[in-house]
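Dear colleagues,

As part of the handover before I leave the project, I'm documenting each prediction I ran so the next person doesn't have to rerun anything. This entry is a single chain, and its sequence is reproduced below.
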Amino acid sequence: MNTQRGRFITFEGGEGVGKSTQVRRLAEALRQRGREVVETREPGGAAGAERLREVLIDATAECWDPLCEAMIVSAARRNHLRHTIRPALERGAWVVCDRFADSTTAYQGYGHGLGLDVLETLYDLAAGPFGPDLTLVLTMDPETALARARSRGGVTRFETLDLAFHHRVSLGFLDIAAREPERCVLVDAADDEAVVADRVLAAVEDRIQAWAAEADAVEGRDL
């Protein structure tokens, strides 16, 4: 058994920026390098969390107010962490996740105006002192990205919201990345998916090298 804890990598960004595609491509690239990888998503990623995803996503836009949304997502996150993310990391697998807590901050906080202190409290209750090792924030003009998302059919409740909302969400992700540069990397997602995948992999490989250097430094101090 691999006794070394795995790494938790999250993808963030607005509707239509290509997160799901890049999650899949990165997971495959990591597997080719010999790592066990768990692909997952939020809300969802575990049986109970997937049920809550349906409650949230399939409802009409006016069904849930921002606090209700945040509470549903937080409950799903706790279930996801308990049943999927933590067990995978503890056995040494790497977890690559389509959305995590930054989406709650960007959508319910920046997008809908829910207080960030409320969101921080909900996160602490659901996750405690836990967070991603690396977050890749895919960026694209919100109008272009939203048009791409809507063109796929099966429009979700968030895709029905107006462009101003999606601009606020986009600015929220940029602000999150600016406040936590040690964790977040901005990735231009406006090009072909293969080009974007190369950018993602380069960012991950840079971080892997940094983690290895940190581990070597710690080992050196312990000698």
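The mean pLDDT is 94. The radius of gyration is 17 Å.

All the best with the project,
I.
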